[in-house]
Write a sequence for this structure.
């Protein structure tokens, strides 16, 4: 049995490193989204509410899909005042994800994270599963 | 040569260290970092040098890859990095500018004295905080959209002058007159516009701020007089950029360039350095979009100025007029003519342009002493006004530092002191603080940054800029 998906934040002088582990690539993406959401909502009480929405992202490899997926969530959150909290992956490949998520409405656009970057990014696949560390520009 | 890092290095003088181009086989040019011994120890404590060496591998880089004394690790380029690429066959890199395109600083000078402000500081800060929203995602009073947004992107402060929010003098005293002519609004995506909607006239979050400050010390009386600064004077320093619009422009073009790099035959040690030849379709598209985002940032700082002027004039009458001293960017890529070096695309990522007296881009009003350089310190500490030097052109492509520079991660900063404690310490110094959250206050506390006095001394002694005045804060509005 693989360990459950997990994330933690690692130190960086000026930005924030989001380190993620999961059994599958799809779970890695979902866990990264959870980590990002926890950063965006840091002082806002978060109770899941409302209808689930679909988010779909296509890219050209695993690393760019991870970056694009997180940047899509940032965009949706900042412009729609809605932060997805419990993403359920419906379809996933190395270059495409379709997910459904319920989330939380926020009053103020949660824009403390400017972007997810490619800096030093590598999606590592081992016998235990997948891991990656994304530097977030804050 | 000594080796305490994984790269060989040599101290050139007390303010400068060089890493030779032989340090790593993929380097195209050597790297130089302006530091004294204390700041050198800071620089080798994180990934600053490795990132600087990575920059030195990029196609078309010329001279040296530079880091300023406030440098620290970033993503791709180090923050505090300067690199110039030949316009003819070099690249342009969105990551080398960063997500906050044209993040910059603007200094406004009043004719109000410290005595007049001291007893009115609390209501003054409350009024300012009301008209200049701060904090992540806070919307402003101005609702530019559609054609208005196109005009802001195309013309920046020139458009704000047309609608009565900027004076001709304001334009003269803003880098590039607050309006990059190469801006191409058509290259800014709908998503970027959507993220920037309603954000003109707002501070944003992170290390951005508006401070009321007092001129505490004058180093160079003649230059200070030319800039209209004197001891005891009340001034306002504004530090912000292009907000969500700039973030999305960078996101869009890092992605676009990541896709086309292979086609251009470019291989890099870090994907965040994603770039394209400056003359390519992708390179030109990014340049047009980045210039438009920069215009948005200039207009943002001008809109904040307009709001601050209303408050000061209401409070102090005619004396409360706020004169723009200068507005300068510190996250930009600019096409510049550097004489023998020809046309180069100078990337300043957390570095300030510092042109000297003889440069044609230095405003006429400042031709005698050089372009004003504004260096914000960390919250609650000193900020500096300097002037650029002609020597800086050869020593750092006309660039200098941009702030104190972080020395500690946000998590580490919060472990040292809680936000409430930081607030109390600032208030004990008589500084009025308006901040959205205590967490942000702890993250931006003075102890999380390097010593701004030391950083500025290095650029002064290295001849990259000359000290004119030191400013200390009275009131802080934080994002």
């Amino acid at each position: 049995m693989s360990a459950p998906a997990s994330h933690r934040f690692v130190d960086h002088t000026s930005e924030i490193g989001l380190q993620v582990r999961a059994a599958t690539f799809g779970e890695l993406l979902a866990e990264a989204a959870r980590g990002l959401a926890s950063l965006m909502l840091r002082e806002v009480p978060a109770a899941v509410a409302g209808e689930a929405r679909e988010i779909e992202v296509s890219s050209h490899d695993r690393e760019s899909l991870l970056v694009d997926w997180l940047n899509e969530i940032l965009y949706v959150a900042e412009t729609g005042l809605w932060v997805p909290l419990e993403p359920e992956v419906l379809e996933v490949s190395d270059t495409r994800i379709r997910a459904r998520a319920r989330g939380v409405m926020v009053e103020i656009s949660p824009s403390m994270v400017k972007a997810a970057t490619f800096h030093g990014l590598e999606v590592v696949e081992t016998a235990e599963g997948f891991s990656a560390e994304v530097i977030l520009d804050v | 040569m000594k080796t305490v890092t994984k790269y060989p290095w040599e101290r050139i003088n007390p303010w400068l260290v060089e890493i030779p181009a032989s340090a790593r086989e993929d380097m195209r040019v050597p790297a130089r970092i302006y530091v004294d011994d204390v700041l050198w120890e800071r620089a080798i404590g994180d990934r600053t040098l490795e990132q600087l060496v990575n920059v030195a591998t990029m196609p078309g880089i010329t001279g040296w890859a530079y880091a300023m004394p406030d440098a620290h690790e970033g993503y791709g380029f180090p923050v505090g990095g300067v690199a110039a690429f030949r316009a003819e066959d070099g690249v342009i890199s969105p990551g080398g500018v960063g997500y906050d395109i044209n993040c910059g600083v603007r200094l406004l000078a009043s004719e109000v004295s410290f005595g007049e402000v001291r007893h009115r500081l609390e209501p003054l800060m409350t009024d300012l905080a009301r008209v200049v929203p701060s904090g992540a995602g806070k919307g402003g009073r101005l609702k530019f959209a559609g054609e208005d947004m196109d005009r802001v992107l195309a013309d920046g402060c020139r458009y704000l002058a047309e609608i009565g929010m900027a004076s001709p003098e304001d334009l003269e005293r803003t880098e590039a007159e607050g309006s990059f002519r190469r801006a191409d609004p058509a290259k800014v995506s709908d998503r970027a516009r959507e993220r920037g909607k309603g954000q003109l006239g707002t501070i944003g979050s992170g290390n951005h701020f508006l401070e009321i400050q007092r001129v505490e010390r004058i180093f160079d009386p003649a230059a200070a007089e030319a800039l209209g600064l004197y001891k005891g004077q009340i001034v306002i320093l504004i530090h912000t950029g292009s907000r969500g619009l700039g973030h999305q422009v960078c996101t869009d073009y890092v992605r676009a360039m990541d896709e086309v790099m292979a086609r251009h035959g470019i291989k890099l040690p870090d994907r965040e350095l994603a770039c394209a030849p400056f003359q390519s379709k992708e390179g030109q598209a990014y340049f047009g979009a980045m210039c438009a985002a920069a215009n948005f940032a200039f207009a943002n700082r001008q809109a904040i100025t307009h709001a601050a002027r209303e408050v000061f004039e209401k409070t102090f009458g005619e004396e409360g007029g706020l004169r723009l001293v200068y507005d300068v960017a510190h996250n930009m890529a600019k096409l510049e003519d550097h004489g023998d070096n020809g046309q180069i695309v100078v990337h300043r990522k957390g570095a300030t342009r510092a042109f000297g007296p003889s440069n044609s881009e230095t405003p006429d009003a400042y031709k005698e002493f050089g372009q004003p350089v504004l260096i914000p310190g960390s919250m609650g500490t000193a900020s500096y006004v300097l002037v650029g030097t002609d020597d800086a052109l050869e020593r750092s492509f006309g660039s200098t530092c941009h702030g104190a520079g972080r020395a500690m991660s946000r998590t580490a900063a919060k472990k040292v002191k809680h936000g409430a404690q930081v607030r109390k310490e600032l208030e004990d110094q008589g500084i009025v603080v308006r901040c959205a959250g205590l967490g942000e206050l702890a993250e931006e506390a003075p102890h999380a940054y390097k010593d701004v006095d030391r950083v500025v001394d290095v650029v002064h002694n290295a001849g990259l800029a000359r000290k004119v005045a030191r400013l200390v804060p009275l009131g802080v509005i934080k994002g």
